[in-house]
Amino acid sequence: MTEEESAYVIRPPRVEDVEALGAVHCRVWQEAYVGLMDEAAFAELTPERFAIQWRRRMERMGADGHHPNGEQVAVAEHGDDVVAFISVGPARDEDPPTDTQLWAINVVSDHLGTGVAQRLMDQVLSDRPAYLWVADGNDRAIRFYERNNFRLDGVQTTDRDDGLVELRMVRR
């Protein structure tokens, strides 16, 4: 592990992280999805809206980052700041290619390329078979997933709420 990678603490989220998680989640979406999702939906992205979602999730999440629905969450801290998170859980689609889904991995742009996303992936998902949905046009994310043995399988969908075109990637 490089010195830069060791500057990150990977841990389960805490209730006091809700506002920071809302800010990180919002910022990453604003950085990654500009021009890729419906303009009206994009304009409605706020840290407060994401924090509300995180607060609801945290109400039932254990201190170990596990939720009764099977989700596991970990955050990456740099100094005193939450700068990334990962969420992995059971498949949420009707006909999933695997039982496990990478629900999200979000890293603020200042910390891209530092190895923190890889550490999150290694610690929470490891090398288990899984699938994920990635925004069409998010080439950096697609390359990251390909380095982790995920492959585009030709399945595509358009999110009904935000118009984001998503591509499915699978690792078996």
From TrEMBL:
Residues 8-172 form the N-acetyltransferase domain. This is GNAT family N-acetyltransferase. The lineage of its organism: Bacteria, Bacillati, Actinomycetota, Actinomycetes, Micrococcales.
